[in-house]
Amino acid sequence: MSLQFTDEEFQSAWRELDEPQLEGGWELFTETMGVKIYRLYDKETGLYEYKVFGVLTTCTPELCADVYMDLTYRKHWDGYVKELYEKDFSGQSAIYWEVKYPFPLSNRDYVYVRDRRDLDVDGRKIWVILARSSPETACAEKSGVLRVKDYKQSVALEADGDCGTRVFLNYFDNPGGMIPTWLVNWAAKSGVPGFLTDMQKACSNYKTYCQKK
Length: 213
Description:
By secondary structure, the protein is of the alpha+beta class. The chain has helices at 7-18, 61-69, 71-77, 181-212; strands spanning 27-32, 35-42, 47-56, 81-89, 92-99, 108-121, 124-133, 146-148, 151-159, 165-173. Strands 1, 2, 3, 4, 5, 6, 7, 8, 9 and 10 form a 10-stranded mixed β-sheet that branches. Strand 1 and strand 2 (35-42) form a beta hairpin. The chain starts with 6 loop residues before the first helix and ends with a helix.
C-alpha cells in the first residue's frame, strides 16, 4: 500500500472518465485529433493546470499502463528525455527525470514519486497512475538545470469498448524561470497531442522492444 497517495486520489482520477469535473473555472483550451484539453488558471503562479480527455485507438489500457511505467523504454521513444531513472535516495525510492528544453532555455529536471493501481470497479477494469514531485527527496540539484519543485500528474485508462483506450490525464507543473507564453501554449496545444501520438506508436512497438531485451 502506497503511503504517498490516498485511496481518494485514485478514485477521483478514474471518476473523471465518467464525469469530467470541470466546474470552478475550467475552460476548453483546444480540441485536436479527438483530444480535448481543458485548462484552469492558477492565480498563485500565473500558470495553468490541464485536463486531457481522449482515446488511443490502437492499444489496450493495460499495454498503455505498462508502457507509461517503463522508464527505460521511454528513453527510446520520447525525444525530450535526457535522463530518466528510478533509484533509492537515502532510503526513499524516487524517479529522476531531466527534460530537454529548446535553446537558449535551461533544461528542467524533476524528482518525483509515483504509484500505479489496477482497479476493479464493479467489474470494470481501470488503470490509474499518480505522480507528484518529491522535494523532500535527497537528490542534489545540477548546475545549469532548473529543478521543477511543483509537479503533479494523474492518468486513468479504461478500454473504450473496441480495441482502444479511453484516457484521462490531469497535470500541472511549474517550470520556474522565465518561460515565454508561446512556449507554454505550444507545449499544451501541440506537445500533449503529440505525446499521445508518440505513446500510441510506442505501444505498438513495445512487444518488439521487449523481445529484443
